[in-house]
Amino acid sequence: MYNRKDKTIAFLMILPSLILLGIFVYFFIAQTAWYSVSDWGVNPATALKKGVEKNYVGLDNYHTLISSASDYEFRISFVNTFFFTIFFLAACLILGFFLAFLLDQRIKGEAVFRTIFLFPMSLSFIVTGTIWNWLLKPKGGLNILPEKLFGLDPLKFKWLNSETKVFKFEWMQGGNLFYLGVALFAFALFTYTAQKRHLSWFWIALVGVGLWLISSAGFWNKIWLPIDNPKLDIGTYTGYGYNAALSGVIIAATWQMAGYVMALFLAGIRGISEELREAARVDGCSEWQVYLHIILPQLRPIALSAIIILGHISLKIFDLVYAMAGIDNREVKVPGILMLKGFRSNEWARSSAVAMVMLFAISLVIIPYLWSNLRTEKS
Questions:
Q1: N or C: which end of the chain has fewer CB within 10 A?
Q2: What percentage of residues in the chain have a pLDDT greater than 90?
Q3: What pTM was computed for the model?
Q4: Burial 135-150 (b: 16+ CB within 10 A, else e)
Q5: Cβ of 152: how many Cβ atoms within 10 Å?
Q6: Sequence spans of domains, the chain
């Protein structure tokens, strides 16, 4: 048992780190939160003048981001992040598991292939973005590959500038928030299932019924703020949805992170006892059934960890998009790009509001995971 002296010494040892953490993390988070509810930068020309006043305006900046007809860029970036996260996670998990499956077959030269697959992760997103920017040029890279290899006509796909959209919707449709709620509900369901928290099914079912009742009663229209001037918004932007231009960014991000997911899954697979697999084979299981009923259930915690890490990366993605498309490409814009653009224009309050929205989105992923792990450790 530690006595009081040991605890005091331990606390004094970590005190400098706590002070630095409090100043350079939580203090600046609080300051950003204050700026997000002020009017700093409403007049960009005077924003940096000495003694400029920062008046409290409540949630006006957030209301502007969500419902102002003239501020459609934030809504584009929000929708882009939503679709990017979904397809990026799916691609990394599927490709990562497939690569781990192949390497688990004890192929010749496994160490070489493992190094090759992991190598992209050693690069920064800036380097990755620069490489894939070259590869996705409209008149070069992947588009001329069919011509060089097979003598076919070159492709004409605009990887980073396409305006083709699928899954289109109007921003203020009441059902859209319901679908977002369903997506969050599905994520919570997966989280609890992966951790085998069967006692929490009651609460999951209760949330699901609550979402259905709210949607049936038409309460979304009271929660989801209407656009101030729908005609202006429609005239300014043609609609929201998954833009094909995001495909290039998703390919580049998946190329870099799929190897990391592969390493996680491969470590998990190799950690499963070979005797357990042999016992399943003796009982008549095919190799496919061994993976389906023996290996995959034991990989659920690893899959959950991968989802949390990749989700955190995707929600705050900035450098990859910046290197590939710059800050003025509307079709692939994400909140990080919008925040930088706002700071450059001295729109400090608006950019701080964007930063707080990003922090909130990341917290929705990280905090439940940390809280769940803390509960598991205590039990």
A1: N
A2: 25
A3: 0.80
A4: bbebeebbbeeeeeee
A5: 10
A6: 68-170+230-379, 173-224
